[in-house]
User: Fold Dipeptide epimerase from Halobacillus litoralis.
Amino acid sequence: MKITDIVCEKRTVSLKRPFKTAVRTVETIEVMDVRLQTEDGNEGLGSATATLQVTGDSLDGMIAAVEGPIKDALLYEDMNKRNDLLLKLEKSCINNSNAKAAVDIAIHDAFGKQCNLPVYRLLGGERDVLETDMTVSINDPATMQDEAVARVEEGFDVLKLKVGHEEKEDFQRLLKVKEAVGDNVRLRLDANQGWNGKQAVHFINRLEKEDINVEFIEQPVPAHDLKALKYVRDHVHLPIMADESVFSPSEVLRLVEMECVDYVNIKLMKAGGLRRAGQIADICESAGIPCMIGSMMESTVSGTAAVHLAMAHPNIKIYDLDAPLWMKDEGLKGGMSYEGREVTVTDLPGLGFY
Ligand SMILES: [Mg+2]
Assistant:
């Protein structure tokens, strides 16, 4: 079963409300959809979002990678040698993890349709219902308080808050949110590399003295500074999660070796697709490190692929899958769906879009 064509399409998706972090405000996202055609007339759908600030991938750069070296490597190759095909994709060009993720997702969707199986089943899982957290944008404390209450009323019992900047303001926001939502709502804090080692330890030690229900701290220090990550983990009690420090399986091996984290956040856009995301989860499983599946601000297509992987991998135990909830209607049918904090997918073949 040969691949006969790979076609890219651009689209822009608007968010229902602006997504604000301390460094940027996102109101629309730029998406590249990939349609991979096979000789039996099937079509696999994949997508990726431009994330210049995180992976360095731009919309035009992703399209150039897919229509250039990736297409050269995969055209007329056999779909049935799926692992071989995915390795060819990985080796087709350097970096470009978002472009590779889109094509990896399209290969899985097409292969699922060919086998008449949903992707979660191809990957060894069963259909399930996952519970996601919800991010509250950075704003003044009163606005964040209102937003946190609104999200809890919608059914979310775990909120993700961005920290990592002015300590005083971070604490004001945290205390306001805690005051509004109470102790039953757990908080996940993401510093997005905002501190150095000492600042992180100072903040987290102070946090540990407050009566706030915090589950973990994500990426307290710059991505490359694994010594600082280890320093933080060794000097605080709260669990530490790596996000930007882990793109690839080889990077996660180093983190395991240095014992610098308690959890790892896997994203398909960083890993380059389902195959390598699964490898990261495998390495972490061997090391006794549970994984979270998260995403960038990305479309429902790649979000759905992340849900399929999460249902299939026993070491993916924490779910940060709210991004598609931020999107205005993308005009897609099938795929992932939400009910409050609960996320599931259809049992249709592939990713389940129709
Ligand atoms: Mg993060």
Q: What stands out?
A: The mean pLDDT is 96.
